[in-house]
Amino acid sequence: MIKPKALLLRVGADTGEGSGGFVGSISEDNLFEWTPMPGHDDPLWRELTYGDNVSSNENNRSAPKISQLQKLNKGDLLVFYAALKKKSVNAIYIIGYYVIKKIYDLIEPNIPHEKLNEIIKELNHKYKNPHVKFINKLKKGNLIIVGEEGGLLKKGIKIGSKIGSHYRMDPEFYFLDYYSDLTRAGSGHNISFKNVWNLLKDKELQKFKKIDSSEIEWARIWKSLPKEEILEIIDNIIKKNLEVIDFIEFLTKNIFFDDKSFNIELELIKGKIG
Fold this sequence. Notes:
Strands 1, 2, 3, 4, 5, 6, 7 and 8 form an 8-stranded mixed sheet that branches. This protein has helices spanning 63-70, 113-126, 130-138, 193-201, 214-224, 227-239, 245-254, 260-273; strands at 6-10, 24-25, 49-53, 77-86, 89-105, 142-163, 166-169, 189-191. It is α+β, with helices and mostly antiparallel strands. The protein is globular, with a radius of gyration of 20 Å. It is built from 8 helices and 8 strands; from the N terminus they run E-E-E-H-E-E-H-H-E-E-E-H-H-H-H-H.
Protein backbone atom coordinates (compact mmCIF):
# COMPACT_ATOMS: atom_id res chain seq x y z
CA MET A 1 0.00 0.00 0.00
CA ILE A 2 1.37 3.41 -0.99
CA LYS A 3 1.79 5.71 2.00
CA PRO A 4 -0.02 9.06 1.49
CA LYS A 5 2.13 12.18 1.29
CA ALA A 6 1.71 15.77 2.42
CA LEU A 7 3.39 18.80 0.89
CA LEU A 8 3.52 22.19 2.60
CA LEU A 9 3.46 24.97 0.01
CA ARG A 10 3.79 28.74 0.44
CA VAL A 11 1.26 30.95 -1.36
CA GLY A 12 -0.15 34.47 -1.27
CA ALA A 13 1.21 37.98 -1.25
CA ASP A 14 4.65 38.47 0.25
CA THR A 15 7.34 41.10 0.71
CA GLY A 16 9.53 39.66 -2.04
CA GLU A 17 9.98 41.18 -5.48
CA GLY A 18 7.11 40.19 -7.78
CA SER A 19 5.01 38.95 -4.86
CA GLY A 20 3.27 42.21 -3.99
CA GLY A 21 5.74 43.76 -1.58
CA PHE A 22 3.43 43.23 1.42
CA VAL A 23 1.80 40.49 3.50
CA GLY A 24 -1.82 40.03 4.50
CA SER A 25 -3.09 40.75 8.01
CA ILE A 26 -4.45 38.44 10.68
CA SER A 27 -6.43 39.34 13.81
CA GLU A 28 -5.71 38.51 17.44
CA ASP A 29 -8.07 35.50 17.21
CA ASN A 30 -6.43 34.38 13.94
CA LEU A 31 -9.18 35.45 11.54
CA PHE A 32 -7.69 36.54 8.23
CA GLU A 33 -8.51 37.57 4.69
CA TRP A 34 -6.97 35.67 1.79
CA THR A 35 -4.46 37.99 0.09
CA PRO A 36 -3.20 36.58 -3.23
CA MET A 37 -0.27 37.91 -5.18
CA PRO A 38 -1.50 40.89 -7.24
CA GLY A 39 -3.21 39.77 -10.45
CA HIS A 40 -2.87 36.06 -9.61
CA ASP A 41 -5.70 34.55 -7.54
CA ASP A 42 -4.20 31.12 -7.01
CA PRO A 43 -5.11 28.84 -5.25
CA LEU A 44 -8.62 29.43 -6.53
CA TRP A 45 -10.40 28.29 -3.41
CA ARG A 46 -13.98 28.30 -4.70
CA GLU A 47 -13.18 25.52 -7.18
CA LEU A 48 -10.42 23.81 -5.15
CA THR A 49 -7.72 24.26 -7.80
CA TYR A 50 -4.06 25.24 -7.74
CA GLY A 51 -1.84 25.85 -10.75
CA ASP A 52 1.85 26.24 -11.37
CA ASN A 53 4.17 26.39 -14.34
CA VAL A 54 7.82 26.00 -15.27
CA SER A 55 9.58 27.90 -18.04
CA SER A 56 12.30 26.64 -20.35
CA ASN A 57 14.81 28.59 -18.26
CA GLU A 58 16.96 26.04 -16.45
CA ASN A 59 17.46 28.49 -13.58
CA ASN A 60 13.73 28.90 -13.01
CA ARG A 61 13.10 28.98 -9.24
CA SER A 62 9.84 27.07 -9.59
CA ALA A 63 11.56 23.94 -10.95
CA PRO A 64 12.13 22.24 -7.54
CA LYS A 65 8.54 22.98 -6.50
CA ILE A 66 7.17 21.60 -9.78
CA SER A 67 9.06 18.33 -9.35
CA GLN A 68 7.60 17.98 -5.86
CA LEU A 69 4.07 18.68 -7.08
CA GLN A 70 4.48 16.09 -9.84
CA LYS A 71 5.15 13.41 -7.20
CA LEU A 72 1.76 13.94 -5.54
CA ASN A 73 -1.12 11.54 -6.19
CA LYS A 74 -4.84 11.25 -5.58
CA GLY A 75 -5.52 11.27 -1.85
CA ASP A 76 -2.33 13.14 -0.93
CA LEU A 77 -2.49 16.44 0.98
CA LEU A 78 -1.45 19.79 -0.43
CA VAL A 79 -1.26 22.14 2.55
CA PHE A 80 -0.97 25.88 1.93
CA TYR A 81 0.75 28.36 4.22
CA ALA A 82 1.32 32.11 3.99
CA ALA A 83 3.12 34.93 5.72
CA LEU A 84 0.66 37.10 7.66
CA LYS A 85 1.06 40.10 9.96
CA LYS A 86 -0.54 40.29 13.42
CA LYS A 87 -0.22 43.88 14.60
CA SER A 88 3.41 44.52 13.59
CA VAL A 89 4.68 40.94 13.82
CA ASN A 90 5.06 38.71 10.76
CA ALA A 91 4.66 34.94 11.11
CA ILE A 92 3.62 32.00 8.96
CA TYR A 93 0.25 30.26 9.16
CA ILE A 94 -1.44 27.28 7.54
CA ILE A 95 -4.37 28.88 5.70
CA GLY A 96 -5.92 25.99 3.75
CA TYR A 97 -5.50 22.58 2.20
CA TYR A 98 -6.68 20.22 -0.54
CA VAL A 99 -7.10 16.48 -0.48
CA ILE A 100 -6.03 15.82 -4.04
CA LYS A 101 -8.56 14.47 -6.52
CA LYS A 102 -6.68 14.84 -9.80
CA ILE A 103 -3.52 16.33 -11.30
CA TYR A 104 -3.37 17.62 -14.87
CA ASP A 105 0.33 17.44 -15.70
CA LEU A 106 1.14 19.27 -18.95
CA ILE A 107 4.83 19.54 -18.17
CA GLU A 108 5.65 16.06 -19.40
CA PRO A 109 7.34 16.50 -22.81
CA ASN A 110 5.82 13.51 -24.64
CA ILE A 111 2.09 14.19 -24.41
CA PRO A 112 0.50 13.35 -27.80
CA HIS A 113 -0.95 16.41 -29.53
CA GLU A 114 -4.48 14.96 -29.63
CA LYS A 115 -4.38 14.06 -25.92
CA LEU A 116 -3.04 17.51 -25.07
CA ASN A 117 -5.95 19.19 -26.85
CA GLU A 118 -8.45 16.94 -25.03
CA ILE A 119 -6.97 17.93 -21.65
CA ILE A 120 -6.99 21.64 -22.53
CA LYS A 121 -10.62 21.40 -23.63
CA GLU A 122 -11.59 19.68 -20.37
CA LEU A 123 -9.75 22.27 -18.26
CA ASN A 124 -11.45 25.16 -20.05
CA HIS A 125 -14.84 23.54 -19.57
CA LYS A 126 -14.44 22.86 -15.85
CA TYR A 127 -12.10 25.42 -14.29
CA LYS A 128 -11.29 29.13 -14.05
CA ASN A 129 -7.87 28.87 -12.42
CA PRO A 130 -5.47 31.53 -13.83
CA HIS A 131 -3.11 28.85 -15.07
CA VAL A 132 -5.78 27.55 -17.45
CA LYS A 133 -5.30 30.81 -19.34
CA PHE A 134 -1.55 30.16 -19.46
CA ILE A 135 -2.22 26.69 -20.82
CA ASN A 136 -4.36 28.14 -23.61
CA LYS A 137 -1.47 30.40 -24.56
CA LEU A 138 1.57 28.21 -23.94
CA LYS A 139 0.00 24.73 -24.25
CA LYS A 140 2.60 22.79 -22.26
CA GLY A 141 4.61 23.76 -19.17
CA ASN A 142 1.72 23.97 -16.72
CA LEU A 143 0.27 21.82 -13.97
CA ILE A 144 -3.22 22.02 -12.44
CA ILE A 145 -4.10 20.31 -9.16
CA VAL A 146 -7.77 19.72 -8.27
CA GLY A 147 -8.95 18.96 -4.73
CA GLU A 148 -11.85 16.70 -3.81
CA GLU A 149 -12.23 18.30 -0.39
CA GLY A 150 -10.61 21.04 1.63
CA GLY A 151 -10.52 24.79 1.14
CA LEU A 152 -9.56 28.04 2.83
CA LEU A 153 -9.55 27.82 6.62
CA LYS A 154 -11.57 30.30 8.60
CA LYS A 155 -8.68 30.82 11.03
CA GLY A 156 -4.97 30.58 10.35
CA ILE A 157 -2.89 28.01 12.23
CA LYS A 158 0.42 29.59 13.26
CA ILE A 159 3.27 27.19 12.61
CA GLY A 160 6.33 29.42 12.43
CA SER A 161 7.94 32.71 13.38
CA LYS A 162 10.22 35.22 11.70
CA ILE A 163 13.74 35.09 13.10
CA GLY A 164 15.89 37.76 11.53
CA SER A 165 15.10 37.63 7.81
CA HIS A 166 14.00 33.97 7.85
CA TYR A 167 10.88 32.07 8.87
CA ARG A 168 11.43 29.00 11.05
CA MET A 169 9.03 26.30 12.22
CA ASP A 170 7.96 26.81 15.84
CA PRO A 171 9.28 23.96 18.07
CA GLU A 172 5.74 22.84 19.04
CA PHE A 173 5.15 22.00 15.37
CA TYR A 174 8.23 19.83 14.93
CA PHE A 175 5.79 16.90 15.05
CA LEU A 176 5.05 17.75 11.40
CA ASP A 177 8.52 16.30 10.73
CA TYR A 178 9.95 19.53 9.37
CA TYR A 179 12.51 21.62 11.23
CA SER A 180 14.19 23.84 8.67
CA ASP A 181 13.83 27.17 6.85
CA LEU A 182 10.34 28.06 5.59
CA THR A 183 11.35 31.35 3.99
CA ARG A 184 11.78 30.42 0.36
CA ALA A 185 8.63 30.22 -1.76
CA GLY A 186 10.28 28.38 -4.65
CA SER A 187 9.94 24.89 -3.22
CA GLY A 188 7.58 22.83 -1.10
CA HIS A 189 8.30 21.07 2.16
CA ASN A 190 7.50 17.41 2.75
CA ILE A 191 5.73 16.88 6.09
CA SER A 192 4.00 14.06 7.94
CA PHE A 193 0.63 13.25 6.31
CA LYS A 194 -0.78 11.68 9.47
CA ASN A 195 0.28 14.48 11.79
CA VAL A 196 -0.84 17.40 9.64
CA TRP A 197 -4.15 15.65 8.90
CA ASN A 198 -4.78 15.23 12.64
CA LEU A 199 -3.95 18.91 13.12
CA LEU A 200 -6.41 19.96 10.43
CA LYS A 201 -9.13 17.60 11.69
CA ASP A 202 -8.75 19.16 15.14
CA LYS A 203 -9.89 22.45 13.56
CA GLU A 204 -13.18 21.14 12.15
CA LEU A 205 -15.31 23.84 13.80
CA GLN A 206 -13.51 26.58 11.88
CA LYS A 207 -12.99 24.47 8.78
CA PHE A 208 -13.73 26.73 5.83
CA LYS A 209 -14.46 30.31 4.97
CA LYS A 210 -17.52 30.93 2.83
CA ILE A 211 -16.18 31.18 -0.70
CA ASP A 212 -19.16 31.35 -3.06
CA SER A 213 -20.61 27.84 -2.85
CA SER A 214 -18.28 26.63 -0.09
CA GLU A 215 -21.15 26.35 2.43
CA ILE A 216 -22.71 23.74 0.15
CA GLU A 217 -19.31 22.02 -0.06
CA TRP A 218 -18.96 22.16 3.71
CA ALA A 219 -22.37 20.58 4.17
CA ARG A 220 -21.47 17.81 1.72
CA ILE A 221 -18.28 17.02 3.62
CA TRP A 222 -20.01 16.93 7.00
CA LYS A 223 -22.80 14.71 5.69
CA SER A 224 -20.19 12.23 4.44
CA LEU A 225 -18.73 11.81 7.94
CA PRO A 226 -19.94 8.98 10.19
CA LYS A 227 -22.42 10.29 12.77
CA GLU A 228 -20.27 8.89 15.58
CA GLU A 229 -17.34 11.01 14.34
CA ILE A 230 -19.48 14.16 14.26
CA LEU A 231 -20.63 13.55 17.86
CA GLU A 232 -17.01 12.94 18.90
CA ILE A 233 -15.94 16.23 17.30
CA ILE A 234 -18.78 18.09 19.08
CA ASP A 235 -17.75 16.48 22.39
CA ASN A 236 -14.13 17.60 21.88
CA ILE A 237 -15.27 21.13 21.07
CA ILE A 238 -17.33 21.26 24.28
CA LYS A 239 -14.39 19.95 26.35
CA LYS A 240 -12.20 22.72 24.94
CA ASN A 241 -14.84 25.31 25.90
CA LEU A 242 -15.18 26.43 22.30
CA GLU A 243 -18.36 27.86 20.75
CA VAL A 244 -20.52 25.03 19.45
CA ILE A 245 -24.09 26.40 19.24
CA ASP A 246 -23.61 28.03 15.81
CA PHE A 247 -21.96 24.86 14.55
CA ILE A 248 -24.86 22.62 15.60
CA GLU A 249 -27.34 25.10 14.12
CA PHE A 250 -25.40 24.90 10.86
CA LEU A 251 -25.61 21.11 10.89
CA THR A 252 -29.35 20.97 11.62
CA LYS A 253 -30.22 23.79 9.20
CA ASN A 254 -28.04 22.78 6.23
CA ILE A 255 -27.75 19.02 6.39
CA PHE A 256 -30.62 16.56 6.12
CA PHE A 257 -29.74 13.45 8.09
CA ASP A 258 -31.85 10.41 7.28
CA ASP A 259 -31.60 9.28 10.89
CA LYS A 260 -34.18 11.46 12.73
CA SER A 261 -32.87 10.33 16.09
CA PHE A 262 -29.52 11.90 15.22
CA ASN A 263 -31.16 15.28 14.57
CA ILE A 264 -32.94 14.97 17.93
CA GLU A 265 -29.61 14.13 19.61
CA LEU A 266 -28.06 17.29 18.15
CA GLU A 267 -30.97 19.38 19.44
CA LEU A 268 -30.60 17.84 22.92
CA ILE A 269 -26.90 18.71 22.99
CA LYS A 270 -27.71 22.28 21.94
CA GLY A 271 -30.36 22.51 24.67
CA LYS A 272 -27.97 21.34 27.39
CA ILE A 273 -25.27 23.90 26.59
CA GLY A 274 -27.50 26.73 25.32
